[in-house]
Amino acid sequence: MPAGLIITYLIILGFLYLLGKNCWKPLFIIFNFLFQGALGAFGLYLFNLAISSCGWDYLIPLNPFNSVFTGFLGVPGLAALVALKYWVKI
User: Fold this and answer.
1) Nearest CA-CA partner of 82 in 43, 29, 53
2) Closest CA to 70 of 84, 56, 86
3) Which DSSP category does 90 fall into?
């Protein structure tokens, strides 16, 4: 193989490596966002299940905003949603 062809292959492999490295980070951020939203939805579902099994009528709506908010903030986010629902009285 000529030396120019080997250098060309190495340059192409380097570009593919850089392109792949730069493309995975946004995908990781998107998947992390979706995973946190799914965890938040599961947390809201468990909260609503626990509240309804106690006989209270104080359910938090299960929508994408509440799911992502609870997923990113965790238990404090759920507490903020409960306080907001109590304060606004929806």
Assistant:
1) 43
2) 84
3) -
Q: Token pair of 2, please?
A: 């000529």
Tokens of 75: 């238990």
Give the burial class of 82: count Cβ atoms within 10 A of its Cβ; 0-12 exposed, 13-18 middle, 19 or more buried.
middle
Percentage helix, strand, coil for the chain under 3-state DSSP, each rounded to 5:
85, 0, 15
Stretches in the chain below the pLDDT threshold 70: 1, 90
- Return the pLDDT at 53: 92
Decide if 73 contacts 80 (C-beta within 8 A): yes
Buried b (16+ CB within 10 A) or exposed e, 42-65: ebbeebeeeeeeeeeeeebeeeee
Q: What DSSP assignment string belongs to 9-49?
A: HHHHHHHHHHHHHHHHHHHHHHHHHHHHHHHHHHHHHHHHH
pTM: 0.71
pLDDT (0 to 100) of residue 69: 93
